[in-house]
Design brief:
With 327 residues, this protein is of the alpha/beta class. The chain has eight helices and 17 strands. The protein is globular, with a radius of gyration of 19 Å.
Length: 327
């Protein structure tokens, strides 16, 4: 099969013909129909996440059709359309798995990091970590829901019932979560790179009450903020914009160092927290909610062989919504 392979961090992906994957017990083989391109892919490729198992096929926002099933597979049949996210396997027995926190599993394996991912014509997935895709979405439209949507949804839940919500970095995740927030009756304040008028206009199109530079203060204090951009310097900025008792959620898997900031920005019971990975419950809840909320993804499709081009566009902030690879 055709695949885009990472041989060494810091190098472009290599287009290659590789053997078809083997299906083990409890696994399903998928014909990949679409795989969205995520900033976490960049963190893996650029070496910002430690110790990837190389060579590796990246990609963890996968929509595909079941081609074959291994023994003991009960959840899916050949022909089913399913999605595969970042969390690809957990042990089920560690203290985290046994306490409903499988996203923190001591031995977790992640799609496109420890397990081969969806930048290929076929992929194998653990049936436990694959999910039916709502029929209202095409393959390419659904792909960004599998990470930008899921991680954004988990991050949003960390803000409780915050009404005035700040979104720092208006890319794939924020453009989905802005719609969820508006559906839930929240007011969205979007923060973009200084001078990025296109992103600010995009945020307003999706119902943001205000959109401006990340260097600006919003017109009123925020009850919570989600930081999707991997920029540690945004943490004190978000705290400065947040009201008493507010929460700042760092929603990325990697972020540059957070600079020192005065204690008064954190005082008055403000909270700074991170979000790690996702759980199966997150996926089930969000994929049920998305069509009810009328969530629409804005995408730009690329042939599989143009994966490096799509990654370069993402790295440069030159995308409206999400890039999606189509084999």
């Amino acid at each position: 099969m055709k695949a885009m392979v990472l041989d060494a961090t810091g190098t472009p992906l290599r287009e290659a013909e590789v053997p078809e994957p083997f299906v083990a017990n409890g696994e399903i083989l998928l014909r990949v129909c679409a795989c969205a391109v995520c900033r976490t892919d960049l963190h893996v490729i650029d070496g910002e996440l430690p110790n990837p198992k190389l060579p590796r096929i990246p990609g963890h926002e996968i929509v595909g059709t079941v081609l074959a099933i291994g023994s003991a597979v009960e959840r899916f049949r050949v022909g089913d359309r399913v999605g595969v996210p970042w969390l690809g396997w957990t042990c089920g027995v560690c203290v985290f798995c046994r306490s409903g926190r499988e996203n923190l599993c001591d031995r977790a394996q992640f799609t496109g990091y420890q397990r081969d991912g969806g930048y290929a014509e076929m992929v194998v997935a653990d049936q436990r970590f694959a999910f039916p895709i709502p029929s209202v979405y095409s393959d390419a439209e659904a792909a960004p829901l599998l990470c930008a949507g899921l991680i954004g949804y988990r991050a949003l839940r960390m803000t409780g019932d915050a009404l005035r919500l700040g979104l720092y970095g208006f890319g794939a995740a924020a453009h989905i979560i802005a719609q969820v927030a508006r559906f839930e009756g929240r007011r969205v304040f979007a923060f973009v790179r200084p001078g990025d008028d296109t992103a600010a206009a995009f945020a307003r199109e999706l119902g943001a009450a205000w959109a401006g530079s990340s260097e600006q203060m919003p017109p009123e204090p925020l009850d919570a903020a989600l930081i999707f951009a991997p920029v540690g310097g945004l943490v004190p900025s978000a705290l400065r914009a947040t009201a008493k008792g507010g929460t700042v959620v760092c929603a990325g898997i990697h972020m540059t160092d957070i600079p020192a900031f005065p204690y008064h920005l954190l005082w008055e019971e403000r909270i700074v927290r991170s979000v790690a990975n996702l759980t199966r419950r997150d996926a089930e809840e969000f994929l049920a909610l998305a069509p009810k909320a009328g969530i629409k993804t804005t995408i730009e499709t690329f042939p599989l062989g143009d994966a490096n081009k799509a990654l370069a566009r993402l790295r440069g902030g030159d995308l409206r919504g999400a890039a999606v690879l189509v084999p």
